[in-house]
Write a structure and sequence with these properties.
Elements: E1 2-6, H1 10-21, E2 25-30, E3 44-47, H2 49-58, H3 63-67, E4 69-72, E5 74-81, E6 86-93, E7 98-102, H4 103-112, E8 119-121, E9 123-130, E10 137-143, E11 149-154, E12 156-159, H5 166-171, E13 178-190, H6 198-206, E14 213-219, E15 222-229, E16 233-241, E17 253-254, H7 258-271, H8 274-282, E18 287-293, E19 301-302, E20 305-307, H9 322-340, H10 345-374
Parallel strand pairs: 1-2, 1-12, 2-8, 5-14, 12-20
Antiparallel strand pairs: 3-7, 4-7, 5-6, 9-10, 10-11, 13-16, 13-18, 14-15, 15-16, 17-18, 19-20
Helix pairs in contact: 1-4, 1-9, 2-9, 6-8, 7-8, 9-10
Length: about 400
């Protein structure tokens, strides 16, 4: 049985692992011309214990995951008084067992553990058609380098094509993402070779537990996230309420002008403590993400086409869920298809949907509420700590 995976991001490569282990032949189509190198738009992420266990089971050298991540053992929320430039701790959880990672490091670990011949880089998905009896699916793709069109046939199509999924749109033509009401400035500050600078000394004085703490700073109608990555990098995110911007090039990452960056720098001075504002201003190439999610879908497969990752459940980032949900989607999909066997594909997909939909639906809605509270768009009613996320201690796999 042959599975065609559209999308070579973490959701796609995770499915390549799980389906290969389940006995499937796998082909991954990705429009990028080559595997992603480290870039600012693939900034930081947090991995929970369950996702880490799954990833390690896929790697020939599991210890590499710990070597390329830093612990996040503390989850701390603190309030910032923007006028007096002082802060006070609101909540502190010292049993927060996550690890901080660079997106491209995790992708690289997963990709390098696979047979590179199963990837077709520079292949842009165009369309698909299911056979009359529903037993096969034919995918049409554009080879970017030559501009020729190629048809590929398989038994299963896995849509790992992100929150703007074109495959999902085929089945849900009226589907629309829900704009959260805010965007996120993001940046990675590199202090390698500059560890004794005034900026780094100041930030370490104000955030003394960098390297093991996930800091949330809450000000009036805004909040920021701050933590350390491996190799002397500091990852920050700042959520800003604003009208919905216009998306271009089918991407939720906006192209920012120097004027937009300058305005962000000025606002940082008025809202955050001087040490954090200074670090934001000294960060090279900050970028802006538009934050979307969607109401839970009623189904995530049709025939022999299945959604995984952000294609199945676009989410806001406030529960550190996106990557973790993608890894669990892949693991559950592989287990369900492996246990039901190729002759019972529809049964395996039904089981995948039955296990994952209740989990991801509750997590997406909880992350939405948490973000709205931290942005001053909603009143309280839920705890600020990550540990209150549904299925925080583990989601069912079978």
């Amino acid at each position: 049985m042959k599975a065609i995976i559209v999308g070579g991001s973490i959701a796609g490569v995770s499915c390549a692992h799980s389906l290969t282990l389940a006995g499937w032949d796998v082909l991954v189509l990705e429009k990028s011309s080559e595997p992603p190198a480290r870039s600012p738009t693939g900034a930081g992420l947090g991995l929970d214990p369950q996702a880490r266990t799954i990833i390690k089971s896929w790697l020939p050298h599991p210890h590499l995951l710990d070597e390329t991540t830093l612990p996040l053992s503390i989850d701390q929320n603190q309030a910032t008084d923007s006028e007096k430039k002082v802060r006070r701790v609101l909540t502190r959880d010292e049993s927060f067992d996550f690890r901080a990672a660079y997106w491209s490091d995790i992708h690289g670990l997963l990709f390098n553990a696979l047979d590179p011949t199963m990837f077709l880089w520079g292949h842009k998905f165009l369309s698909f058609a299911m056979s009359q009896d529903g037993s096969t699916v034919k995918v049409e793709t554009l080879v970017m380098e030559t501009q020729e069109t190629v048809e590929i046939q398989g038994d299963l199509l896995v849509a790992a094509d992100g929150c703007l999924s074109s495959i999902r749109k085929t089945f849900l033509p009226n589907f629309k993402l829900r704009y959260s009401g805010y965007c996120a400035w993001r940046g990675v500050f590199d202090f390698s070779g500059d560890e004794n600078s005034e900026t780094v000394s100041g930030i370490k004085r104000e955030y003394p537990e960098l390297g093991r703490c996930l800091y949330f700073d809450l000000a009036m109608n805004t909040h920021s996230v701050f933590y350390e990555l491996i190799n002397k990098k500091l990852n920050w995110i700042w959520y800003v309420n604003q009208p919905e911007p216009e998306l271009k090039n089918n991407s939720v990452t906006l192209k920012v002008s120097q004027e937009m960056i300058n305005k962000m720098h000025q606002e940082a001075d008025t809202i955050w403590i001087p040490e954090l504002a200074r670090l934001m201003k000294e960060t090279k190439e900050p970028f802006l993400n538009v934050i979307y999610d969607c109401d839970p879908l009623e189904r995530i497969f049709w025939g022999n086409v299945v959604l995984v990752g952000d294609a199945a459940h676009p989410t806001t980032p406030h529960g550190l869920r996106s990557t973790n949900m993608s890894v669990l989607d892949a693991e559950v999909l592989g287990k369900c298809l492996g246990e039901c066997g190729p002759e019972n594909l529809s049964l395996g997909l039904e089981e995948y949907q039955r296990i994952r939909l209740p989990v991801v639906s509750k997590q997406v809605l909880y992350a939405r509420r948490l973000g709205r509270i931290k942005q001053g768009l909603d009143r309280g009613g839920i705890g600020l700590e990550q540990k209150h996320m549904p299925f925080f201690s583990g989601a069912p796999l079978v």
